[in-house]
Amino acid sequence: LLILSLSIWVTAQCQMFAAVCDNHTLRIFLYSLIFFLSVFGNLLIIVVLTVNKRMRTVTNTFLLSLAVSDLMMAVVCIPFTLIPSILKDFIFGAAMCKIVAYLMGISVSISTFSLVAIAIERYSAICNPLKSRVWQTRSHAYKVIATTWVLAFIIMIPYPVVSHLQRVQRVDNSTAHLCRHKWPLATAEQTWYILLLLVLFAIPGVVMIVAYGLISRELYRGIQFEMGHKKGSSDVKNGLTSTLSTGSDDGDGCYVSQRPASMEMSSVGHNKSQKSDRPRSNTSEAKLEAKKRVIRMLVVIVVMFFICWMPIYCVNTWRAFDNVSALHALSGAPIGFIHLLSYTSACVNPIIYCFMNTRFRKALLVTFSCCSSPCRHRRHSIREHEEDAMATAASMSKFSYTTVSTMGPC
Fold this sequence. Notes:
Protein name: Gastrin/cholecystokinin type B receptor
Strand content: under 5%
Region (Disordered): 230-285
Distance between the termini: 49 Å
Membrane topology: Multi-pass membrane protein
Strand order of the largest sheet: 1-2
Radius of gyration: 26 Å
CATH architecture of the domain at 2-213 and 326-347: Up-down Bundle
CATH class of the domain at 2-213 and 326-347: Mainly Alpha
Number of helices: 14
Shape: elongated
GO molecular function: gastrin receptor activity; neuropeptide receptor activity
Family: Belongs to the G-protein coupled receptor 1 family.
């Protein structure tokens, strides 16, 4: 209803400018779609992670912070960017100009810091499991999240200071207002945008590339090891057998979990050996596929981060050093779609980090099936059934394992 009301209101305001409205129809539709997907997806994540106690892991704590910041980004950034862009007038007043600029910067900062925290947490849990087990607790996650929020509030203090409502004269001699940043010195503006480029894009991007690259290397080593082990097992299947540990594996391909190979003479018949090899082979294939899926997901995470955020930070830096040429090349629809691309991360993050996670999807179904069922006994039985099912799910949101990779540290 909110999206529909927003679209109707903007369309009604645009009736005075029919030609302009025709040019902005696609932009209105895309902004509305991204807004709806962002709000709906992040609200679902907040509800599921809040209601389900079993989902309150270290990684999911960071995902909850990420969902809150993405929800704030969608609510604050999208409407207050679209409406002034369409109307060519910031109609919300001078106070909202400062508040909106401040909240925009905070939401973007928290979202980026959360992505970095998730990458570091996953790297530590997978590549250094023994060391990470000592400090990776929910209390530590709460401290990190509190630090990122406080840091974001402090870093973005210049935005409400330099944001002002500027009065401009239209072609038809009517008066309009624009929310603009007025810096005391050009060097101050250039320094600020270079700082943002480094702190909120370049450094986080490098950290994510390194962390997920090392994780992918560890998973690739696991794939190579299992493929080699599978080939070796096929050569000696009628003689010696090798025993892999499968009891504590969560099946998400995040660890290369194995016990020392135990070699023993086969004293059983050929038919029994074939029957025992069949489930082991299926488990090995599932592990390999899970590892490959995780690697592909990590690549998608890094690529989407750069696609969403690189254009807007490059444009802001360009504006700081050459505002005239930047406005001439990007004013109107181009800058509107560049902003939209950055806001797309608010709806992409829930899909990549949560909805692609089998464990989260199961918890989502359990949550809403329990809400619609008045029987608490049924709710309890469903949770117990799902707990067993989720133990073998392909999960990227939980890395609290008891097995350690024998491939060595990353």
